[in-house]
Design a protein that fits this description.
Elements: E1 13-14, E2 17-23, E3 26-30, E4 36-40, H1 41-45, H2 54-57, E5 66-67, E6 70-72, E7 78-79, E8 85-91, E9 96-100, H3 101-106, H4 114-127, H5 133-146, H6 165-168, H7 171-178, E10 185-189, E11 201-205, H8 206-226, H9 234-237, H10 241-252, H11 258-264, H12 269-279
Antiparallel strand pairs: 1-2, 2-3, 3-4, 5-6, 6-8, 7-8, 8-9, 10-11
Amino acid sequence: METTKRVINISEKFGSWIVLNKQGKQVLCQCDCGTQKLVYSHTLTNGRSTNCGCKKRKESIPVGANFGRLKVISDVEVKGKRGELLLLTLCSCGTQKYVSKNSLKRGLTQSCGCLQRETLKSDKTVHGHCKSHEYNSWLHIKRICYNKNHHQYKYHGGCGIEVDASWRDNFTQFLKDMGVAPEGTVIARIDLESDFAPGNCQWIPRKEHYCQIHFLKRKEFFISQTLPKPVVTNCEINVSPNIIRAIVKAHANGEANMNKLATQYQISTQDAINIILHHA
């Protein structure tokens, strides 16, 4: 019995695909995201291909989702100057602002900026510590975790170290947890693999802190000497090319915590570090 082949027409839609041109068994299609690709005609007609893969890759944030004071009011993603994806949000103060999608998901942005302004104002008028050693220490740990231009960023934020959410925009809570710093001391983490967080920080003598920074520098130097720049083969680190590509992409999109990447892709933290060092 002879079967009739399904005729595919120019401009016909198949899911997110729109047909641009026919080339034998393959069809040139354009996805709603703008990607053009040759697709086998039978995968269109049987419903196996409906988009370029962007729907699967894209973790959308629904309209109405709240992040602190921000509420997402549009699911249309806009590219920023650095290629980052931005979403239009409405702050509780009434300000509309495009905010990095990644920053929203990671909890790094909680307002249009009004929260920080109010915190700074409160810091100056209420606790009276705006010029204190404790306040400068609070600012310092945020800089070394989130300012990529800071000379100590590579030892902290560059290694995935963050400031606990309860401290990030709240100096009062930081001061309550840490207390007044004894004379001649600086803030330091107890567990150098963990974040700046309540229970993992203490005031230590400045000389001890210098020793800690020296240790971090020596650790970086040791890694750079024992893990030279020439590419390590997949066999040596025993990780598939697909996982390598996924980790490199995640790192390029802002994920700097090697422990999280290792857990997500079920590999060792050392393998995750090797991948970033030699493939990023």
